[in-house]
Design a protein that fits this description.
single chain, 177 residues, mainly alpha, 2 domains
């Protein structure tokens, strides 16, 4: 394995660990915050004034982080209508088209959510009384941009996998006479 491949694999593993850590921390924090809100409301007739807004933001962040994890593992939501009817090569071609389409849609979402965040920055919007809103909304263009990048990489990588699989079948059969 080349040195570049080793470095790339290490970076990919570090990104995977970071994504999983973010997912875990967000989920645990959401559970604790929601539990604290319930406890405070039921036993003390009070709550954290910023708690509900923070929970909504955490749901947003968790959704984007979950989408990133799903795109990393190529396990995003899909409807397998043609999978049973298409031969393997045609199925791979359909996956390439779907990855390109997904990359375009995520790219559009990244662009427009970036415009939304810029508007929030320009107008000086705040959340939870005094936190600049754009700092908490920036997850939208970043997350969708990363998803677009991942699906574009998948679309580029699949033809090479398809060609490698075809070459492997040829070598397994041996040379033709």
């Amino acid at each position: 394995m080349s040195r570049f491949a080793v470095i790339f694999n290490r970076l990919e593993k570090a990104g995977t660990y970071a994504e999983e850590a973010v997912l875990m921390v967000l989920l645990v924090a959401m559970i604790l915050l929601a539990g604290a809100q319930i406890f405070l409301r039921n036993f003390f007739d009070t709550s954290l004034f910023w708690g509900d807004e923070m929970l909504r933001l955490m749901v947003l962040w968790l959704t984007i982080a979950g989408g990133l994890a799903a795109s990393r593992m190529d396990k995003h939501i899909s409807i397998a209508v043609l999978d049973r009817f298409l031969p393997a090569q045609a199925h791979q071609i359909v996956k390439i088209i779907i990855d390109l389409f997904t990359a375009i849609i995520c790219g559009l979402f990244a662009w427009h959510s970036g415009r939304f965040v810029m508007g929030s920055y320009e107008f000086g919007d705040t959340l939870m009384t005094n936190i600049p809103a754009w700092t908490l909304q920036i997850v939208l263009p970043l997350g969708f941009g990363l998803m677009a990048y991942r699906h574009l990489i998948l679309a580029i990588k699949r033809p090479f996998e398809l060609a490698g699989a075809a070459a492997g079948k040829l070598t397994a059969r041996g040379p033709r006479s």
